[in-house]
Amino acid sequence: MDHLLAGRPLSKLGDMSYGVYLVHWPLLITLLVVQDASRAGAIEGLILIALSVRAGSLLTRYVDAPIRFSRSLALLPGRAVLVIALAVAVGVTPSLLIQSALDRQTARILAGAALNNPGAAVLLGSSSGPQDPDAPPIPLPEDIKWDWGNIDDLSCKGPYKPTDPSLAAACRQTATGEPGKVIVAVGNSRTQQMIGSYLPLAEANGYTIVSIIKSGCPLDTTTTWEGCLDWNVELRDYLVALHPAAVVTNTTQIDPGQREKRTPGVEGLIGDLTGAGIAVIGFRDAPRLPWDPPACLHERSEEQCTVPTRGMFGEAELNRGLASSVRGSGAFHPIDLTDYFCPGGECVPIIGNVHVYMDAVHPTRTYVRTIAPEVDRQLSSSGWRW
């Protein structure tokens, strides 16, 4: 082993290692930008290694070595600082240029999203599909894992701020709308992801949206999950005291490997809220898939990454039938978007050139926002008036 490491090839590679380190990343990013890809394949990887070694060799010979072994530079009082500055410039400048190109590419793609990434509009009949057949699906690979549906505007204040410290810490709100017009979204992260489907509708009609989300805690007042029961009891008391125009939550749930069911205790919750004169907007749960669609698409085709709904969903009446739980002047408004996640009984990873899922259990905010017209239609059909 010592003989191998001391050999001329590896010794020479060691001499140029810093140069290879500096150039490999800009070369990789350039390749991905040119190919509009999220990672390099095996052949591209080998070519990239060869180019990095060659470029690193040239950088070492014509930039690094002349600076390191320059007699004139050695006599300068600030030689060390100069060498460091040059090294940083050589390493950082290409990366900044590449990042700037990436930012411009992202801005260009997003600017054309209305035409090239219609999402659910292709199912709603308001779009025939992307105008540019080469436009990449959005969110882009580097953004998809961050495409959460949370409200980032403001921490809750004034009458919207819960007195319970744990609820207050999780409470977020949009800019204040018209007096008396408030909708509260409560539940787990799957409820959070659906906020985008009605947020633009609410804001356009002068409503404030308040969200109080706890990951792993559906609005289930019978749960035995640690921390969830006390949370949900406090949350119910907050909702009754606040008396919003509506509470939005998932009223059915799909657990891993199980068939869709009603969220436990949801009938009593609907009764309590509607009995207090509060409307409940109940979303049927989104699919829970056996694998991560974006990761699947790295290796397989869209068809191979499609999941049939067989055995996943119950009857539609499972959600619609909750209207029988209404006990007062409040109303129940069921929302069923199954056909927009799984058209024709097939949960496809991309619809209208938009990634439907950010992982196996969460739809992307980008796709969910394109379903807003259908949510508006279903709300109107159930008697909701903005």
UniProtKB/TrEMBL annotation:
Q: Which Pfam families match?
A: SGNH
* Record has Mitochondrion as a keyword: no
Per the record, the coiled-coil ranges are none
Q: Where is the SGNH domain?
A: 167-376
What domain of life? Bacteria
* Keyword line: Acyltransferase, Membrane, Transferase, Transmembrane, Transmembrane helix
What span is annotated as the signal peptide, if there is one?
none
A GO molecular function annotation here is: acyltransferase activity
Positions of transmembrane segments: 16-34, 41-60, 80-98
Name of the protein in its database record: Acyltransferase
